[in-house]
Design a protein that fits this description.
single chain, alpha/beta, Rossmann fold, five-stranded parallel sheet, 5 helices, 5 strands, about 40% helix, binds ligand CA2
Length: about 150
């Protein structure tokens, strides 16, 4: 089963600052954890990081035609601003699980609302890299249940 993993803006800089909020693992480290989980579950991942909203919109909208069955996504700051990403999520026809390293509800007011989460099947927030691993398990389980 093919799944798309999307990382939003600045997540390519993980591990370089604010470790008290985001931890010290790099994005490559998170991707390695995801690949390990995918191997255990027999999943095939395509992983993309972009700092550009339009690139993320294009990736979401072409995910199904590229053979993906679902999307695991940390939209980063675009979560709090992007109706374009919400519309793409709603249009793509695939289940999207949103993840965040930090607990967005325990931070500044402007981070407590996520537009993108309004189109997601669920959100895992606040567990560091484990948010991604749990999100991947939950997305795969949902797809396997719906297939059966
Ligand atoms: O907690 C999360 O995963 C966030 O999606 C991370 C975003 C933030 O805007 C969201 O409110 C919550 C920030 C991603 C950028 O993080 C960096 C961390 C270290 C160094 C540079 C960027």
């Amino acid at each position: 089963m093919k799944l798309l993993v999307l990382h939003g803006p600045s997540l390519d800089r993980l591990g370089t600052r604010e470790p008290e909020i985001y931890g010290s693992l790099s994005l490559a480290g998170i991707n390695a954890l995801l690949e390990e989980t995918a191997k255990q579950r027999g999943l095939e991942l395509t992983i993309l990081q972009s700092n550009h909203e339009g690139v993320l919109v294009d990736a979401i909208l072409s995910a199904a035609e590229n053979g993906n069955r679902g999307i695991l996504m940390n939209p980063a700051a675009y979560s709090h601003t992007s109706i374009a990403l919400l519309d793409a999520i709603r249009a793509c026809g695939l289940p999207v699980v949103e993840v965040h390293l930090s607990n967005i509800h325990a931070r500044e007011e402007f981070r407590r609302h996520s537009y993108t989460a309004m189109g997601a099947v669920g959100v895992v927030t606040g567990f560091g890299p484990d948010s991604y691993v749990a999100g991947l398990h939950l997305l795969a389980a949902r797809l396997q249940q719906h297939a059966g």
